[in-house]
């Protein structure tokens, strides 16, 4: 149920409603909107509940939530959720660019990447320290040493760090270094892990499972929201189909579809979504055209020698070119994007004045 409070209701009435819902053995989620306060009531529906809630002071109306996901649904919160951490802003008209290698490999590799992606306009650095690999014999990541390298890169560049947490027991360790916790595609339905990241105060980037439906993705997000963490970013990273010209099939219709169903921001990962470096620039800019709130792109200073996913990684120059392409599309669709440091001062000032980029 959604309890829509009256426009001019008092804080005491909201507090009373919260107590009332709890006393009925249900869970209240208060969402303070620009227009009015809404309380999502989570728990089994029962006869007379609607009437009981409707007659509580301060209530305007009580409506059923039709979607199976409740807190994630746009019915409950029509305004888009904007996730902000350090210089990274995802949603609300901002395009957040998260770029970096598949795996953190060495100090030289991560520092060179961080400096270059920042100069090209990225606001967050990605890099796996705990890697989910298909084969147990493949490189599994540098673990805490990798997290330390990411933190050092953040120290120098100011970029927010986005990194994957593979297991529930690793959440406290990864949370000590990360600004955003990434839940990988393979773990999208690891419900205990979702609850664990839901209990942290860090934003979570939730990747779509390669065979998960949109509804399953939104229900996975619901686990994180229900555990108390409102900062969830959804990530379309491609799904498995019969098609094999690309590593996965990247369905960009997910972006407007998710925007219609949820207030959560949506980013696209064209690197895993295509599995081919040469397809990434156009699919990145196509994602921006489709309305994505951000991009997650694999970038490596020397993709040929990358320990993982080199075949889908952009080199530093290719990334710079991709950002230029995305910037043009962002301007056309009215999205704000961080200005590139190599963009040139005059051009940056003109673009900022136009409202197309953020200085
Ligand atoms: C990654 O981002 O490097 C990764 C392993 O992605 P996914 O979970 O989407 O396969
Ligand atoms: Mn990868």
Rg for CA atoms: 21 Å
* First-residue to last-residue Cα separation: 42 Å
> What order do the strands of the largest sheet run in, or round the barrel if closed?
7-8-9-10-11-12-13-14
Which ligands, by name, code or SMILES, are bound? phosphoenolpyruvate, manganese (II) ion
Tell me the strand percentage band.
15-25%
What does this entry look like structurally?
β7, α3 and β8 (124-126) form a beta-alpha-beta unit. This protein has twelve helices and 16 strands. The protein has two domains: 2-63, Phospho-2-dehydro-3-deoxyheptonate aldolase, domain 1 (Alpha-Beta Plaits, 2-Layer Sandwich), CATH 3.30.70; 83-354, TIM Barrel (Alpha-Beta Barrel), CATH 3.20.20. The strands form three sheets. The protein has an eight-stranded parallel β-barrel, surrounded by seven helices. A four-stranded antiparallel sheet has the order 2-3-1-4. It is of the alpha/beta class and 359 residues long. The two termini are 42 Å apart.
